[in-house]
Amino acid sequence: MICGPTAAGKTSVGIELSQSLNGEVISADSRQFYTEMSIGTAKPTRAEMHGVPHHFVDHCSIENPITAGEFERQGERKILEVLGKDKLPIVVGGSGLFVRSLMEGLDDLPSSDRLRSELIAQFESEGIQSLLERLGKADPDAIKSIDHKNQVRVMRAIELVELSGIALAEIRNQEKPQKAFDPIWIGITPERDELYERIDHRVDQMIKNGLEAEAKSLLSHRNSAPLKTVGYKELFSLFDGEYDLDEAIRLIKRNSRHYAKRQLTWFRKIDGIKWFHPDQVEDVKRHLHSQLSDR
After folding, report:
1. Which has the closest alpha carbon to 171: 150, 137, 149, 146?
2. Whose CA is closest to 17, among 292, 282, 290?
3. Distance CA 72, CA 76 (A)
4. Is residue 95 helix, strand or coil?
5. For the chain, what are the domain ranges?
6. Nearest-angstrom CA–CA distance, 285 and 276
7. Which pLDDT value is given to residue 46?
8. Alpha carbons 72 and 99: distance in angstroms, whole number
């Protein structure tokens, strides 16, 4: 598992490892799944893939978003398929929920299309505060641990609590199913100043490559969960006339840095991750060989 913050260099490390270790890349970047989202997700081009198979890149349309649970099931099947060919699955990504679902598993949690449609309608007519009040009545403690600005997570919390009848904290502490594989965790990140330089350079390159036009083509899907993300949401506000392009670029860079910081905080809570600078690919190879020989 190759993880780390945005713009750290995970993609190139994953490709080089796959080339030298007879591997195939399994993307756990929840935005690179979508065919319509390429520039804003820093999706590798065919040339950049150097012939290495990449699974879950351009996997589906934004019109049919994939959930973390669906990715867990599909991703685990793909890992076992790659292993069955005597090849090494190299999972690469920084999307915490999707990484966790594939590597650790999610609980077999309840869901309801009817209730989800009801909650979406409530959000659209009454706003996020109405959903927070509903969650607070069902599970007062859940309000303390939920992102009040993330309506998708608030709706999912309501769904879980109302359908299961138990507190969100208790649901989160349920035992997860055993995985059919044992991941080796590799963290990739440069020092903070270099990471922020990489982020700024990537954003400038995205703008040069046509991110504004790509975002404009996705305006009709702006309320889709995959597009409520850095790089797209700032441009949607630009199109709404809230600020000019220079300010949008500044916000994308700032918000990308904030996102990278959150990613690092999340990954550093995982035991057993061995961290490397993106230029230390040879050291990563030696570490992997050592780990694999012990299994």
Report:
1. 146
2. 282
3. 6
4. coil
5. 2-106+177-293, 113-172
6. 11
7. 94
8. 9
- Confirm if 185 and 276 have CB atoms less than 8 A apart: no
CATH, range 113-172? 1.10.20
AA identity, residue 197: E
DSSP 224: S
Contact criterion met (CB below 8 Å) for 56 and 101: no
Is residue 175 pLDDT above 70, yes or no?
no
> In the block, which residue shows the tokens 């975002």?
215
Same fold, 2-106+177-293 and 113-172: no
- 72 is written with which tokens? 């867990």
* DSSP conformational letter for 207: H
User: pLDDT of 264-279, one tens digit each?
Assistant: 988 988 888 999 999 9
Whether residue 264 contacts residue 3, with contact meaning beta carbons closer than 8 Å, is answered with no
Q: Which residues lie closer than 8 Å to 93 by C-beta, 6 or more apart?
A: 2, 3, 10, 27, 28, 29, 30, 99
DSSP 280: -
- 186-188, strands of its sheet edge to edge: 54-55, 23-27, 88-92, 2-3, 186-188, 274-276
- Tokens 């915490």 — which residue? 96
Token duo for residue 266: 């999340």
> In the CATH hierarchy, which top-level class contains the domain 2-106+177-293?
alpha beta
**pTM for the model:** 0.78
289 class by beta-carbon count within 10 Å (0-12 exposed, 13-18 middle, 19+ buried): exposed
Distance CA 5, CA 261 (A): 7
